[in-house]
């Protein structure tokens, strides 16, 4: 096992320098100003899911922790691109991006802060969850970053967290789950994540940690190709209609949309169809024209990956909702597409802007 500190901290000193505007930090690393253009970043991203959205001071303290190596010291090369918080879900997604070689320690500091501030026993929200830190997925952004490398980083994060927060516990998924590489949906089904009310934590055997702490719960840590969250709201309070639509677009069902995982939730007096948009490698059985409009491609290690476009998801849900005589009232993309995420991460790092989220509260299509 390669120690996390050896992997992530052997990179010289850092000095914070105050500047005006939203981005208050320009970083000096090994004598080079991080605000100047740099090439050669090998970027990855973590869409950190925490079980808190109603206390924004706590959410922002966790985001700020990701920018520190240790208390009082700002961190180099990591940026928090976006914070998406949902009051009804009582869940926030923090988009943490940076070089794969240094991103892990930022995730550790953010998770440690979250464990300290969030008690899962006190959680009240409609979204399923098992942990104060519910999900830590690592995705490659740069083509040169491999899924295997992201999996190694995920496992190193879990080992470091188990050392720093002894009562926390974790399960692996994707490229961190060796040798099986079970995906997140399969692991969640095995752990009854979707039916939290029926969960007996004493029956869970975590991959890391001895038992599941009532305070911290269980955290999923893993790596996979990029997964987006695309949520479409329909103007009804009839959850049954939402569940029918979610079932119809779910990729595992006949006629569903490839790579889509979907659930329906009551949300602010309406119903939200919450979609996880997974990337996949093998090409769909469709014409070139259909592929160009429905699917968007990007590359990992020279291999093409595709995902169903958010516009096409919205179009299909709108069509299904219309069959129930229900209109849609909005679509939210939680975070960014893979391409947009990579471009913004490069921009933020060039500018030395760790607090990039202050420019981007949410993105709505």
From TrEMBL:
Lineage: Eukaryota, Metazoa, Chordata, Craniata, Vertebrata
GO molecular function: folic acid binding; transferase activity
Formiminotransferase N-terminal subdomain domain residues: 42-225
Pfam families: FTCD_N
InterPro entries on file: Formiminotransferase_C_sf (IPR037070), Formiminotransferase_N (IPR012886), Formiminotransferase_N_sf (IPR037064), FormiminoTrfase_cat_dom_sf (IPR022384), FTCD (IPR051623)
SUPFAM superfamilies: Formiminotransferase domain of formiminotransferase-cyclodeaminase
Official protein name in the record: Formiminotransferase N-terminal subdomain domain-containing protein
Family matches, as PANTHER family: FORMIMINOTRANSFERASE N-TERMINAL SUBDOMAIN-CONTAINING PROTEIN, FORMIMINOTRANSFERASE-CYCLODEAMINASE
């Amino acid at each position: 096992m390669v120690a996390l500190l050896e992997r992530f901290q052997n990179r010289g000193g850092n000095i914070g320098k105050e500047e005006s505007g939203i981005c208050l930090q320009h970083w000096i690393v090994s004598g080079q100003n991080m605000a100047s253009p740099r090439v050669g970043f090998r970027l990855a991203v973590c869409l950190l899911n925490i079980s808190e959205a109603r206390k924004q001071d706590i959410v922002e303290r966790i985001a700020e922790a990701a920018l520190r190596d240790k208390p009082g010291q700002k961190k180099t090369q990591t940026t928090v691109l976006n914070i998406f918080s949902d009051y009804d879900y009582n869940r926030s997604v923090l988009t943490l991006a940076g070089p794969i070689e240094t991103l892990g320690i930022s995730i550790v500091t953010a998770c440690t802060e979250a464990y300290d501030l969030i008690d899962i026993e006190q959680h009240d929200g409609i979204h399923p969850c098992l942990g104060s830190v519910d999900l830590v997925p690592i995705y490659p952004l740069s083509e040169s970053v491999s899924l295997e490398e992201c999996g190694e980083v995920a496992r190193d994060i879990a080992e470091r967290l188990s050392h720093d927060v002894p009562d926390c516990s974790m399960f692996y998924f994707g490229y961190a789950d060796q040798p099986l590489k079970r995906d997140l949906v399969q692991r969640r089904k095995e752990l009854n994540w979707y039916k939290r009310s029926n969960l007996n934590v004493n029956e869970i055997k975590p991959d890391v940690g001895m038992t599941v702490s009532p305070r911290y719960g269980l955290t999923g840590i893993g790596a996979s190709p990029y997964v987006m969250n695309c949520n479409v709201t329909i103007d009804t309070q009839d959850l049954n209609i939402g569940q029918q639509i979610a079932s119809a677009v779910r990729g595992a069902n006949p006629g569903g949309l490839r790579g889509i995982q979907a659930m329906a939730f009551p949300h602010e007096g309406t119903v939200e169809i919450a979609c996880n948009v997974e990337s996949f490698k093998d090409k769909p059985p469709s014409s070139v024209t259909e592929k160009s409009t429905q699917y968007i491609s990007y590359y990992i290690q020279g291999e093409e990956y595709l995902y169903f476009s958010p516009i096409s998801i919205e179009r299909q849900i709108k069509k299904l909702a219309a069959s129930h005589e229900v209109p849609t009232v909005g679509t939210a993309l939680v975070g960014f597409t893979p391409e947009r995420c990579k471009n913004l991460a490069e921009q933020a790092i060039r500018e030395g802007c760790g607090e990039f989220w202050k420019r981007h509260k949410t993105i709505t299509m």
